[in-house]
Amino acid sequence: MAYLTLKNINKIYPNGYHAVHNFNLEIEKGEFVVFVGPSGCGKSTTLRMIAGLEDISNGEFLINGKRANEMGPREREVAMVFQSYALYPQMTVYDNIAFGLTLQGVDEDVIEQRVQNTARILGLTEYLDRLPRALSGGQRQRVAIGRAIIRKVGIFLMDEPLSNLDAKQRVTMRYEIAQIHRETGATTIYVTHDQTEAMTLADRIVVMKDGYVQQIGTPYELYYKPANVFVAGFIGEPPMNFVRGTVKGGCLAMGGNALDLSRKLPDIGKYEGKEIVLGFRPEAVALGEHEDGYHIACRVELTEMLGDNTNVYVTAGDTQAILKIDSHDTPQTDADITFSIPLESVYLFDAETENVIG
After folding, report:
1. C-alpha pair distances (Å), 266 with each of 246, 305, 357
2. pLDDT in tens, 248-287
3. Could you check whether 4-234 and 241-350 share the same CATH topology?
4. Is the pLDDT of residue 1 over 70?
5. Which class in CATH covers the domain with range 241-350?
6. Pseudo-torsion of CA 129, 132, 133, 138, nearest 10°?
């Protein structure tokens, strides 16, 4: 296991494009950290700088307290799993997994023992004699993971490893990756654009946008204590609802509803006449009027029955929102309903900076 330190890491390409800005992070030994964000946010570039596949423009990267900027990928003792699997099609599963050890000249008896142990962990024992083309996508990804973990390095890097799998395979592989991490204890950095993968796998999540870190925290912290509008809207499915408007008389209008913001923020007066953003999660609401919350009258535009819950799309004036409710309470389309938002489930953001208020 290894601990990593990234100090003011920047990546600037020769054409002047600034891909990563002042990235700072301490990663503890054995920690599972996920970099998440939309395409082009700089997460894969940061991972490649950690791997030694991209030069660091400025800043300092340390492995176990030792500067690693000038180290090559092999010196850093990292193993990487790519989105494309990168298996050798002419080699069997056994030979693909053993390839790194074979290059190192490891004794054949040792290779045999370690390949068999790795195959057992990954459920690949019965496939060792097969070629990659005879495997499913999930099985190929397990082979790619096996080739990485067999080397027993201290740092395990994964770049969108599940993006080529179907929905059912992704669920299975998430579980298997979590189990592998528990068994190996390797310090792991995992890149994805899928917030579900981030929330289910990570000890901590780094949310990125446009090359900047937006927030670092546990899944719980990012979900319940988002730092800004971007994090609040990125984490959670369906995404958080936002109501943008100008504070008038301490209230914010949502359709024909006036929401008294002083109930949430006693000093709301200092925002009088200013634009503000109110957020609430679809699953935080309850149908009907409940005490200690905001009551919103609205019209049902569309419902999506998903089994145990229903997504209800509503409008209140010009404002649209999604409610996530128990499927047994699904309202009729075009019905006029009222829902309540508990005060503790309401978030307020400054419209100019988009940072959370309070």
Report:
1. 17, 39, 12
2. 999 999 988 999 999 999 999 999 999 999 999 999 999 9
3. no
4. no
5. mainly beta
6. 110
